[in-house]
Design brief:
The protein is an all-beta fold. About 0% of the residues lie in helices and about 35% in strands. The chain has a four-stranded antiparallel beta sheet, with no helix packed on it. It has a two-stranded antiparallel sheet with strand order 3-4. The chain is globular.
Length: about 80
């Protein structure tokens, strides 16, 4: 789940779901960095993101990781 800046109607943080896979590596260990790709479950909720934006990954507390957007592609038809 990702905090990409969206909020619920009452102003609470809304977490968005995306499939994640690591590019060019079999796995990603704690503290390591890698290029990853995200495939949002609801692409329309991610349209506001631009290159350079930083988003936060949540699995539970504390934060599981952060990502900097380096490329934005339109959803496939």
């Amino acid at each position: 789940m990702w905090d990409i800046g969206n909020r619920t109607a009452d102003g609470e943080r809304e977490l968005n779901i995306a499939r994640l896979w690591v590019e060019y590596a079999q796995e990603l260990g704690p503290g390591e960095t890698a290029d990853v790709r995200l495939a949002p479950l609801s692409p329309e909720q991610w349209k506001h993101l631009e290159c350079g934006d930083v988003i936060t990954m949540h699995e539970a507390r504390p934060v599981a990781g952060t990502a900097t957007v380096i490329e934005v592609l339109p959803p496939r038809a």
